[in-house]
Amino acid sequence: MNELTVPISEEAIRALHVGDTVSLNGVIVTARDAAHKYMIENFIEGKPPESERELYERLKELLSGSAIYHCGPVVKQEDGKWSFVAAGPTTSMREEPYQAQVIGHFGLRAVIGKGGMGPKTLEACQKYGAVYLHTIGGAASLIAQSVKEVLAVYKMELGVPEAMWVIRVENFPAVVTMDSHGKSIHAEVAEHSGERLKELLGL
Q1: What DSSP state is assigned to residue 33?
Q2: Could you tell me where the DSSP H helices lie in the chain?
Q3: Which residues have a Cβ under 8 Å from the Cβ of 36 and sit 6 or more positions away?
Q4: pTM of the shown model
Q5: Which of 31, 47, 113, 146 is most open to solvent, judged by the fewest CB atoms within 10 Å of its CB?
Q6: Residue 197: what pLDDT?
Q7: Domain over 2-201 is classified CATH 3.40.50.1110
Q8: In Å, what is the CA distance from 82 to each residue of 11, 36, 97, 101, 125?
Q9: Is 174 left (phi over 0), alpha (psi -120 to 50) or beta?
């Protein structure tokens, strides 16, 4: 088991390889489709609006050396404090159009989700020193136990699942399925599955 603590160094990421198990600790941020689109349009491809400047600076601080988790949590609020009831991963491929730019711009070291991502994200992992961490789908309540504290939430107007939740995690379990050396379990599985399908179809 590889212990990763935010902020994660590039050296620690480069030492990881596909198949390695990881226990993640520290402050990370959830982001799904709407949040990624928002970051691209407002912070990466355009000059941050003055009204969003404070959030932009905060996200730069939070995401540098950290991780984005593709997650639309189920939450509850008691006595003014938020907590996660369920924290299962979202299918990551939906973020493929955005992820490479977000990794490069904000200095991400990890992207967490399920199902893997495509060649643009893999290239960004190689270039900038990042990994894709696959976590368990269907274990949302179990994963929520690793979320020890909700520190803040941004862009709640996008809706609870699409908002950017700043969370502190302890012993968050994941497996490296795309590394910084150009390897992707997901690409290999797709290739082998395609070859097997051709065999079955007699092509």
Answers
A1: H
A2: 10-14, 33-39, 53-63, 96-106, 119-128, 140-144, 185-201
A3: 95, 98, 99, 102
A4: 0.90
A5: 47
A6: 37
A7: no
A8: 34, 22, 31, 30, 32
A9: beta
pLDDT tens for residues 48-82?
A: 888 899 999 999 999 999 999 999 999 999 998 99
Distances 117 to 98, 131, 169, 181, 190 between C-alpha atoms, Å: 11, 11, 23, 15, 12
Among residues 75, 73, 78, 130, the alpha carbon closest in space to that of 100 is found at: 130
Q: How many CB atoms lie within 10 A of CB 10?
A: 14
Q: Residues with catalytic annotation?
A: 36
What amino acid is encoded at 104 in this protein? Answer: G
Structure tokens at 117: 């991502």
For residues 167 and 25, the answer to whether their CB atoms sit within 8 Å is no
SS3 call for 200: helix
Which residue in 138, 124, 128 sits closest to 91, CA to CA? 138
- At residue 43, the 3 state secondary structure works out as helix
